[in-house]
Amino acid sequence: MQHLDLRVIEQTLAWSREGETLWLCTVLATYGSSPRAPGSLLVVRGDGRHLGSLSGGCVEDDFLVRLANGEFSAPVTTLRYGASGADGAGITLPCGGILDVLIERLTPDTDTRVHLEVLLDTLKGHQPLARRVDLSNGDRHFVEDTGIGPRVMVDTERGAAQIRMAPVARLVIAGISPVAEACAQFAVGLGFEVIVCDPREEELRGFEVEGVQVRPELPSAFIAAGHCHAATAIVALTHDPRIDDLAMIEAVRTPAFYIGVMGSMRTSRARADRLRRSGGLSEHEVARLHMPIGLDLGSRTPAEIALSVMADILRVQRGKPRDSL
Prior knowledge:
This protein is of the alpha/beta class. It has helices at about 5-15, 60-70, 110-125, 180-190, 200-205, 220-225, 240-250, 265-275, 285, 300-315, and strands at about 20-30, 40-45, 50, 75-80, 100-105, 130-135, 140-145, 150-155, 160-165, 170-175, 195, 210-215, 230-235, 260, 290. The longest helix is centred in the C-terminal third of the chain and has 16 residues, at about 300-315. This is XshC-Cox1 family protein.
């Protein structure tokens, strides 16, 4: 799940606590090309203020107009956009695809707020759950989720949608460097929640990337404190073993799906020996480390290296073996 969707649920909860009636929209299915994947979120207030995205513009505009005209008063509604004769008022998606949207009307009561609080905890990686929404009456509850299969499943026989609320993809960058800064910029654009940790004041002063959380502490301490879930990637990009090695020692104790550290083949072999000897890492733990980090793109500049790092993270996240590229 993208960081934007986490922000949507945070804002939904905040507005609900302020007493606002809200409409939470979820992409149920896409056919053909589509700007946003199933599970993507949009929240809208009665006055038209909104956050999130379903299509990149056209669907949102149509929805806001219809909401202002008094539609969507039912607890739950489903719409299809992009198909001839569909409910979406003849809207044609620029990509030529078809979009099914679930619209839930959320009243500002205790049940709604409790549901949103559990949902927020799930997106932060505290528990693996899926939302199950009755498409006839809007009743909703959580079920345990294995993390396997499509993100959204529609049970037409029972008239329900089940939406996996996986943790938002998180990137923890251990230490600031030119490569780390470029990597953070790429990751924000890809929808990752990005956290940069570095205790060095001189490095912190020169680091400015919009949308990135900066922690003035040792990356190893942040990682050891339990901030890394199964949707986390951890990368060390400083060439400083006092930062990189300690981060790797803690990273292998987490369920992070990707752990990598920058360096040449020679540096990586020396680091592996050092981590076994001084860090006490097992062969299995060392094998979890992507080093040298990234895809071999012949990268030279910081931006090129960062591109290879993020490409490799996406490869692993999508379950693609290197030899399939």
